[in-house]
């Protein structure tokens, strides 16, 4: 991927409003961490009130995945989820601009030795994650301890893309951003023994996907995890990052490498992945990205759910 360089076009008046917003955010993120959490919850409450389409998607997902909950329980979970999403906005800024030592005081990492052992053995790693709202800060915190390459899709706004990449790359000096469609580069890096962050928990359409249950609902699940593991001669190491209660920071859990993966069939592999995703979400359902239309692709003949 091309080098991330400042461009003179960023000084054009069409970017001035974004510069102003980034400047305000840069100032706000200097505030104490507990205050940022409160600001994030306030932002989440505003999003809940005004982001009607996203609220509808998240509510529908919760109905599908947690049918045993009462309407009151799901509504409470939905509000907590929007609060978590609001906090994630400030966590993004923290990961971009906080001094690294300040960030390190907030994190506890378990299982880092699993990544280190794979690296020592020259083994490529698919670091399998899911889309929690803590994704941005979790990648930054783990990236300070171990080099992680990432699948990357450029932002439509070139200035925001520049700032985002700048903030991410400072934690991972020798990390490489790989275009999401550049499968050949990904495979080559896996064969070179690198660790690549990859999340298979979103709906990318019926092509190259299989319908397997997720919370009992048929979900289009990509088969690429199996293919990448096989072609890259890699192992799958699951990881999850969660926000701890009462402002105590973050816990990153790196799990042992999966044995017997890929398995006997892609369907079996996809089911195994979705079962792991379910377990991770169930532990902290308020922190998952429920505003994604996870079930937008339906099996032939099934009605749309959104």
Automatic annotation (TrEMBL):
Enzyme Commission number: 2.3.1.241
Transmembrane segments: 12-29
Membrane topology: Single-pass membrane protein
Short motif HXXXXD motif, span: 131-136
GO biological process, one term: lipid A biosynthetic process
Domain of life, per lineage: Bacteria
Coarse class of the protein's main subcellular location: membrane
GO cellular component: plasma membrane
Pfam families per the UniProt record, alphabetical: Lip_A_acyltrans (PF03279)
Protein's pathway: Glycolipid biosynthesis; KDO(2)-lipid A biosynthesis; KDO(2)-lipid A from CMP-3-deoxy-D-manno-octulosonate and lipid IV(A): step 3/4; Bacterial outer membrane biogenesis; lipopolysaccharide biosynthesis
GO molecular function: Kdo2-lipid IVA acyltransferase activity
Entry keywords, A to Z: Acyltransferase, Cell inner membrane, Cell membrane, Lipopolysaccharide biosynthesis, Membrane, Transferase, Transmembrane, Transmembrane helix
Reaction(s) this enzyme catalyzes, per UniProt: an alpha-Kdo-(2->4)-alpha-Kdo-(2->6)-lipid IVA + a fatty acyl-[ACP] = an alpha-Kdo-(2->4)-alpha-Kdo-(2->6)-(acyl)-lipid IVA + holo-[ACP]
The keyword Transferase is assigned to this record: yes
Subcellular location: Cell inner membrane
Job description of the protein: Catalyzes the transfer of an acyl chain from an acyl-[acyl-carrier-protein] (ACP) to a Kdo(2)-lipid IV(A) to form a Kdo(2)-(acyl)-lipid IV(A).
Similarity annotation: Belongs to the LpxL/LpxM/LpxP family.
Alphabetical list of NCBIfam families matching this protein: lipid_A_htrB (TIGR02207), PRK05646.1 (NF004191)
UniProt xrefs under HAMAP family: Lipid_A_LpxL_LpxP
Protein name per Swiss-Prot or TrEMBL: Lipid A biosynthesis acyltransferase
Organism, as annotated: Thiopseudomonas denitrificans
Gene expressing this chain: lpxL
């Amino acid at each position: 991927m091309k080098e991330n360089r400042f461009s003179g076009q960023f000084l054009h008046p069409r970017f001035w409003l974004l510069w102003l917003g980034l400047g305000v955010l840069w100032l706000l993120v200097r505030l104490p961490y507990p205050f940022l959490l409160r600001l994030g919850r306030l932002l989440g409450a505003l999003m809940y009130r005004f982001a009607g389409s996203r609220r509808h998607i998240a509510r529908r997902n919760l109905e599908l995945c947690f049918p045993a909950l009462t309407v009151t329980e799901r509504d409470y979970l939905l509000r907590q989820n929007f609060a978590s999403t609001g906090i994630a906005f400030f966590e993004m800024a923290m990961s971009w601009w906080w001094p690294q030592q300040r960030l390190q005081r907030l994190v506890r990492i378990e299982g880092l030795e699993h990544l280190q052992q794979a690296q020592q053995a020259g083994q490529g790693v698919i670091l399998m994650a899911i889309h929690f709202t803590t994704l941005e800060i979790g990648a930054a915190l783990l990236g300070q301890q171990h080099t992680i390459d990432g699948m990357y899709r450029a932002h439509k706004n070139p200035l925001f893309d520049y700032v985002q990449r700048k903030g991410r790359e400072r934690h991972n000096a020798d990390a490489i951003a790989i275009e999401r469609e550049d499968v050949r580069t990904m495979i080559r890096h896996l064969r070179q023994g690198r660790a690549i962050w990859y999340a298979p928990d979103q709906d990318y359409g019926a092509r190259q996907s299989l319908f397997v249950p997720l919370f009992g609902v048929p979900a289009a699940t990509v088969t690429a995890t199996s293919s990448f593991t096989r072609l890259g001669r890699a192992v799958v190491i699951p990881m999850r990052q969660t926000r701890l209660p009462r402002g105590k920071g973050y816990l990153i859990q790196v799990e042992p490498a999966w044995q017997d993966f890929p398995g006997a069939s892609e369907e079996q592999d996809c089911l195994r992945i979705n079962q792991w995703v379910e377990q991770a979400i169930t532990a902290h359902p308020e922190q998952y990205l429920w505003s994604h239309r996870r079930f937008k692709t339906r099996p032939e003949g099934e009605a749309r759910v959104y």
